[in-house]
Structure formats: C-alpha cells, structure tokens
Amino acid sequence: MKSASRLLPACLSVWFLVACDMSSPEGSLEAPVLVTQDFADGNDGSHSQGKQLHGTSLGSVAFANATLLRNGERRGVTLRLERGELVANLALSVQGTTASLQDCASPDQTGPERSCGLTVLGQGTCTPGARFTLSSGALCQGRQPGACQGAPVMRVCSGERPCEPHDNNFLVTGTPSCTSALCPTANVQCPASGVYTVLAGAYTPGTPWSLTLEASRGEFPTTHQELRGDGLVGLKMRSHDGAHMLEVTSAVNAEDVLIQESPGTWDPSGYTALYRVKSVGAQPLPNICNANPNPGGAEALVVPVRGLYDDFGNRTESTTAFTLACDHAVIAKCYRWGYKPWLDGAQAGPTTEAHWSCTRMARADYCGAGMSYTKDGTPIRLWDGMTPPINPPPANPIPQMSMWFEAGWKTDGAACLSHWRWRTLEASTCINLSWPKYDANGNVINDCKVVGNIEGCAAICDTAEEARHLYGAKVFNESEAN
Fold first, then answer.
1. CA angle, 267 as apex, 261 and 269 as ends, to 5°?
2. pLDDT at 93 over 50
3. What gap in Å lies between CA 403 and CA 418, rounded to an integer?
4. Which end of the chain is more exposed for a tag (fewer CB within 10 A), N or C?
C-alpha cells in the first residue's frame, strides 16, 4: 500500500476522454466513459466516511472576475472547468511599441536586422522550453508548410512585446532554410511565458511581400493563451457570494498524488488537477481547507467539481460558479471513488446523480438534511447500480462480525435502511424516512415491503437488490458499527 505524499510536477497530462467545447464555463464533453474502479488493496477494500461536506466554508467559487498576474500586471481571464481541472484563457495583446514598427526614413534600410519598416504579423503560444519551427513554405528537400511572396524578413520576440535585435526579449531572426529559398524559417525555443510575438516585413521597405507562417508545435497565430496546471499559480478568484478573494498557490496532477487506499493514486485518469488555495484580504488563510481530521493527514488540496452544494447537502447545477472541495471531505472523496460529474458530459446525468447520492452515504446523512450521523474514519464498502458499474458489488462478502449492509442511497438521503442500521441509529427524526414501529416481540409492524406502500411505513432493506427494486436506490454500502 502506498504512503501519502504531495508531488508538484510541471504540467497536467491527458488519458482517456474526449476534447471539450470551450463555449461554456465547463467544456461540453461527448459520450461519457465510465471506468470501473479497482479498490482491491489486499485487505477488505474499504473506504472511510467523514463528517465534512466541502471541508471549507469558501468552497463555492465564481467563474467570473478571475485574474492572473502577467508582467507585474493583473489581467482578466476567462475561467472554465474542463473535466476535473481549471483552465483560464488569457487574451493576448501587443504590449507597447518599438522603433522597428515605425516607417523607414530611407529605402536603403534593408534586411532583418534593421530598426524600421516591420509590422506585427501575429502572436503564438507554445510549451515553455520546447523547441519548434516557424516555417513559410521554403522549397528545399520538399516544400515546408506556410507560404510567402517577395522576400520577407521575420523576427521572433519573447512574450507580447515587440523587440529589437539586441533587446532582452529578442529570440531569433528568420533565415532562408536553403540557399535558393526566399521564405524565412526560424527554429525557436519557447520562452518561459509560453507566448511569442512575430514581426515581419519586406526585405526592402516599400516592396510587395506576404508571409504565412506555420508552427510545428503550439498555435500560431492565436488571440489567446490557454493556461492550466502550474500556469494557474497566482490565479485569483472570487467566492460565489463575492465576499472573499481566493488565490491558487500550487497545482498538481492528481495522478501524481499518492494515497493510502487503492489504486494508490488520487485519480489515475490524468484529467484531474488538485490545487492549494489560500484566501487573501482582511482575514487571510494560508489554506482555505479546514483541519484534516485524518490522523497524520497532509495539508489539504482542493479539487474543482461541477455544481454547487449548500449546507443541507442539496446540489444545484450552475453555469456561473463551481465547487472547490477539500480532498479529505466527502465531495472530494466521492469524486475520487469514481463518481466524477464531468463523465456525464455537458449535462448532469447518472454519474452526477451517483456522486450526489454518494455524498449522502459518505456522511451518513440519512435524513437528507445535511446532518452527519457518523464518525470521521468509519470504514465502509460501497457499490452502485450503474451500467456498467463504477464501483461493482464486493466480490467477497465481508464477515458478518466486521461489516453489515447498511443502506441504499438516493440524492435526498437514505432510500432505506437495514434492520441492523435502524436498531443502532441514534437519530430521532428524519425528513425522508419514517421510523420503524415495534411490537412487544421486537418485530417491525410498519415495514413497507411487508405491509405495502402505506403512508408512514418504514423503508427497510437488507440487501442492495431490495434497496434498488423497492426503493429506487442508486448507491449502496456496508458499514462497520460505530
């Protein structure tokens, strides 16, 4: 079994789903891909319940009014949730001017090194440190991508500022890729900012020219830069109520975060990012998450999750805000156990419903009122009735002395409870469930499945099949007595 750790790699990878539509705060996904979880870890395959829902009072965050620091300036970004990670789009612009963008005083000022007669051809994005080629159709051993006419010159500058040949942000001058070609090509190492600006013009000012560049990697031309992973460090967001400012201080791919339960990583899909987030302002917090109740638990990271949860555990869809859930709280736990709302695509569906039902189960919120009736760390085993199942039924039943079937769950709490759980439950009232009534011999006299669906009957189920067929439950669990 792996020990818990927090790793901070530089970028986020992709694994098994499809590209996103960027027209909404959360990209709309194509058909969902449900992945059966493998939680067999050599013992009983159990997980643990917890009392916290979000794990923070600052978990509802607005998409709007987000900003990033770029060259000492706070600039607005368009924020969206793509699968399980935040993505920010920063609009690019030409920052300032330079002598090369002015007209030339004399036609004798020629060549790529001159300081006049050029124009901004466009801006591009790339992966910092990576090498790529900007080509314009030179005919050498075969025509390269792109095109040109006349004898254009090209200069590549780091970032969004135009440059002169001896400026700090100068990267490279385009040169013909073979002796007979007049179309320039440049081999570029992507700058740390991931953005570059291309200047171009005629070799001799005033003569006709045209230049179309193709980048071997990244995008050119483009009007925005897409930022994710470590690129979001320094991102500031408003809480949904507008009262608090939050800032991302680190980012990590969840496939690189080791956990104690199987399969050993937080989320092996590669599509989930975890963040460390602080609050800034009048009452700053170095981490927005509450104290981790797990013994020896590390400082909490947060996972972004579609939808909003109120203090009563009720969930609503939202296009204006999303949830940040601390990884020791049950919204994050249920996500980690495989119920990722983004698997449904753009619209909430069965996986989202299962995630919501799981949050009731993971807190033992029997009444569906936001009240937890468990202790942090109580072992449970869970499964579901989805097709195919995300968590299949336990292959080997746990001995009766260890765990018992507890309940079937729906989005509004427990759909039904087992005889064992009814007898051990200390709650006195429930919104969604009627309490069993016992005769002098201890027999339940108002069991729904015995007396029929009469008003006030007690919903009792001792198997997942009963919970599913009689009460419409979606998620099921066995639990250890606490």
1. 140
2. yes
3. 12
4. N
Domains along the sequence of the chain with CATH: 47-67+228-479 (no CATH), 99-222 (2.60.120)
Give residue 247's region: left, alpha or beta (phi > 0; psi -120 to 50).
beta
Both tokens of residue 322?
């999303």
| Pairwise CA distance, residues 301 & 91, whole Å | 29
In the block, tokens 């968590």 appear at 391
Residue 129 carries which side chain, given as an amino acid letter? G
Token pair belonging to 411 = 């989005």
Query: Hey, which residues does 384 pair with through a beta bridge?
Result: 475
Nearest-angstrom CA–CA distance, 253 and 26: 18
Contact 154, 137 (CB under 8 A): no
Rounded Cα distance between 36 and 233, Å, is: 33
3-state secondary structure of 185: strand
Dig out the tokens for 139 from the structure: 């005919």
CB neighbour list of residue 266: distance below 8 Å, 6 or more residues apart: 254, 255, 257, 258, 259, 272, 274, 327, 336
Report pLDDT digits (tens) over 319-365: 999 999 999 999 999 999 999 999 999 899 999 999 999 999 999 99
**What distance in Å separates the CA atoms of residue 345 and residue 289, rounded to the nearest whole number?**
28
E-assigned strand segments in 159-255: 170-173, 175-176, 184-189, 195-202, 210-212, 214-215, 224-227, 236-238, 245-253
466 in Cβ contact with 385 (< 8 Å) = no
Residue 302 β-bridge partners: 275, 326
List the one residue out of 331, 391, 388 whose CA is nearest residue 358.
331
Place of tokens 């030339």: 104
Q: Provide the pLDDT confidence category of residue 149 given band limits of 50, 70 and 90.
A: confident
DSSP string, 327-379: TTSHHHHHHHTT--GGGG-SS--HHHHHHHHHHHHHHT-TTSSS---S-TT-E
Q: Which residue has the tokens 């199987």?
A: 262
- Rounded Cα gap, residues 349 and 342, in angstroms: 9
